Amino acid sequence: MNFEIKYKDALGRIGKLKTPHGTVETPALMPVIHPGKQTIDVKKYGADMVITNAYIIYKNEELKNKAMENGIHNLINFDGPIVTDSGSFQLSVYGDIDVDNSEIIEFQENIGTDIGTSLDIPTPPYVKRERAERELQITLERAEEAINVRGNLMLNSVIQGSTFPDLRAKCAQVIGKMDFEVYPIGAVVPLLENYRYMDVLDIVMASVGNLPPSRPRHLMGAGHPMVFAFAVATGCDLYDSAAYILYAQDDRFMMPDGTYKLENLFHMPCSCEICANYTPDDLRGMKKEDRMKLIAAHNLNISFAEIRKIKQAIIDGNLLELVENRCRSHPYLLDALRGLKKYKNILEEYDPAYKKSAFFYSGPESLNRPEIYRHMKGLKKLPKKDKLVLLPAFKKPYSKNIENILLNNPEMENIHDLVGEMYKIHNLEINNPVLDESTQIAVVDYPFGIIPLEIDEVYPMAQNEAPSCLDEDSKKFIRDTINEYKDNFNEIIISERVIKKFDLDYKFKKSEESLKINLDDLNKIEYIADYQFGEGSGKALFNGKINVIKSKKTGKIRHIHDGDSLIATIRASDGIFVLSMEGARRLHNYLQYPKNRVVVNTDAEPFAKKGKSIFAKFVIDCDINIRANEEVLIVNEKDELLAFGKSLLNGREIMDFNVGQAVKTRKGGK
Ligand code: GUN
Ligand code: ZN
């Protein structure tokens, strides 16, 4: 296996792809090199890997002989990894080519290509289903043949299926089981050229969702920096650009927010060395060939800058914020962004559960982000209560501020004084008017909807910012959320401020009870544990002589002991528990196999016990519901607890990869 993941965000990843001519970091952009005519040194602009066309070389006697004699790296004068395409694209343009699949694969192997491509059939979008099926059948047969004729050549096998998501899915499933090193997604060029980003999204998701996560995917023909962030966030790792030169020949400047024509420019569009050293008039005054080279250099500069920006966003955990910004540069990209809503399940599955950066709301599309969807699911894990009290949001963290107001106002008797009149939903009868342990008290705020006070410091409930000016989509989102959540309770009591702010229209009856807030530490740590590890985990972890130790400086809960024994610590940055060995033991005792577990083989056992990190190749089983960056238990085949640590991948990735780290071990059990 040649690929491993270093960082993740959304469905995007920073990976390392190993080839015979070196290892490249993904996401990577491969400039297209013309084997006979290349005049631009793409390495100078940041290309670590390039792509060229084996069919063009094969068809030209002189190029062919040179490539056979001295190898392709010599032919195109590039010493890094070279990918070659097979002539499929020519097939899609000219309808016919005179080479067959096994011939072109052998040729690619003979000229020393790093990653070759089998001769897939790029079925155009919107064809009749019959044709898409027939051509897909041939693509699949050729994939199988490619595996058989190759020696050591790393191979691309292209996903086809036109605009039929089920055919794309089938193709991905079938060739995903074969041993290809890279899975390109093909025949999207006509869609990209026509800004059909919604269709591209559906194709990418149907493919990515059915491919093994352990292999890189190449979105073939995607070379405009406008689409990179979006495509990375949906799981595409490799890009190729002939666009940098084609646009330059046409006097067009690529930018991450669109394209600028030289004829319209009064000012250069960026700060790269071309834009800093020339004016539009300088360029217009030049010979075509000279100008073309300079614009191509700008196009490469800006494209690689965008790739770097995307990588930083993955590391920071705010890739989807970059995507939301980029998608505002074209209405059809905005369509695709909105279309992500359809894929919230898979996005949530691959998105890390905890991140370094705060959640910034950039508009209604942010409501579809995995963090919010995950929170809705997390609410279901909390201890079951009879009554729900919904309060308006104050400054974050909510509980602290509510507590402060109550403590600092000795005159204040109950929540009525704080939040105005309380109303109950009319058709629910109130039996017991006193707030007690059967009541959940939550704040209503957007974009996270309902935030029980106990978990208001858990990521990202305290680590988010939204504009104070509320939009209609958010109002509706809050109404829908309350509507769905209220069915878990027998009684709902709502502050009039919440009713007014979000335009709730239930039949309300004024509630006359005296509502007191009592924020109890034990209750709080149980809630956090249940939210993090699942229902009942809090009670299992925190029994005995529980002693809650708070930070002298911040007043926040830091450590939880049973007598002298440390059970867990709350991490200040994201409010979640990091276990001690004793905490891990208790959780292991409580949670049923395979929940929260990563199972390692006997070889890895001594390493795990010593606290060494767990490599994916040692894992024989795991909880498929694990998300990246969660606290997990490391066990052996007999489900004996060896250690615990932080998952670096999700469950499916841990199972599928056999290189790279899967769990960063915090502590072994000796
Ligand atoms: N380049 C752009 N699209 C395609 C495709 O579908 N297949 C191959 N092999 N190359 C491409
Ligand atoms: Zn520039």
Short recap of the structure:
This protein is α/β, with parallel strands linked by helices and 670 residues long. Helices cover 37% and strands 21% of the residues.
Any overview of this molecule?
The protein is globular, with a radius of gyration of 29 Å. The model is unreliable at 426-434 (pLDDT under 50). The chain has 3 domains: 3-350, Alpha-Beta Barrel (TIM Barrel); 382-510, no CATH class; 533-668, Archaeosine Trna-guanine Transglycosylase, Chain: A, domain 4, CATH 2.30.130.10. Strand 7, helix 6 and strand 8 (154-156) form a beta-alpha-beta unit. It is 37% helix and 21% strand. It has 670 residues and is of the alpha/beta class. It is built from 27 helices and 31 strands. Helix 10 (225-233) packs across helix 15. The strands form 9 sheets. It has a 6-stranded mixed beta sheet with strand order 18-17-15-20-16-21. A 6-stranded mixed beta sheet has the order 27-31-30-29-26-28.
CATH T-level fold name of the largest domain? TIM Barrel
DSSP E strands, number: 31
User: Architecture of the largest domain, CATH level 2?
Assistant: Alpha-Beta Barrel
Q: Going by CATH, what is the homologous superfamily of the largest domain?
A: Queuine tRNA-ribosyltransferase-like
Number of domain units? 3
Q: What's the rounded overall pLDDT mean? A: 94
Task: Return the structural class.
Answer: alpha/beta
Give me the number of helical elements: 27
- Low-confidence parts, pLDDT < 50 over ≥5 residues? 426-434
Distance N terminus to C terminus?
Answer: 32 Å
